[in-house]
Each structure stands twice: as C-alpha cells, then as structure tokens.
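#struct-help
A.M.: can someone run this one for me? Single chain, 126 residues.
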Amino acid sequence: MFNLRTLRWLAIGIALTLLLAEVWRVSQLEREWLLILEDVVSAGLLLIAAIWITRDGIRQRALFAAAWMLNAALLYVSFHTQWFRNADILSNGLGALGPVDIAVAGLMMACLFGLALTVWLPPEDE
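D.P.: on it. Structure tokens below:
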C-alpha cells in the first residue's frame, strides 16, 4: 500500500502546501521575510529530499527522514504557539481550536507518519 513513491508524492504535496500557506500568511500578517525563512527552508528541504529519493539508499533515506522530522518539529512549535496564544485570549485556560490549528495539527501528524514510514519501510529492489 505505502512505498517510497507514495511517500514522495505525500512529501511534495505537504511541502507545496506549507510553501503556499506561508506565502498566504505573510501577505495577511505582513511579517518580515526573515521570520518566514525557517518555514521556507524546511519545506524546501522536504521538497528536495522527495525529489532526490528516486533511488533508495541510506543517504537518501536519512535526508528524507531529517526533512520529515524538521517539518514536524516546526509544525509542532507553530501549533502549540497558536494554542497557548488562544488560551491567553480566552482567559479560561483552554485554547479554542480553529480550522487553521486543525490543519497545522493534521500536517504535523502527516509528517510524523511520513517519518515513521521512511524509517520502517523495507528497502526497495531496483
């Protein structure tokens, strides 16, 4: 069902989604370009790793796993920062989950899923 080809397409989709979401967020919030650099670099690394893993090898898998983990970590920070910001706004101690929060959590889980499959899938024969 899942193989490296499927994971490559999942990675490309997530990377493009993250890039487009960051461009949208920058246009809405008028953030400095330096503040978006980490998101663009992490999504770019995932995109490069997905393109580079056309052949199965240890180096390719290591870069692919690192790219998955970097994106999952950045999405984790983004999700929890937003969660606690909402909790401060609501002042009842519980943050409200909006559609953006749910989307970020879903992307984070997809990155963790991709990381797990990258590590656990058996090597492919050429």
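A.M.: thanks! The mean pLDDT is 82.
D.P.: also worth noting: The CA atoms of residues 22 and 28 lie 10 Å apart.
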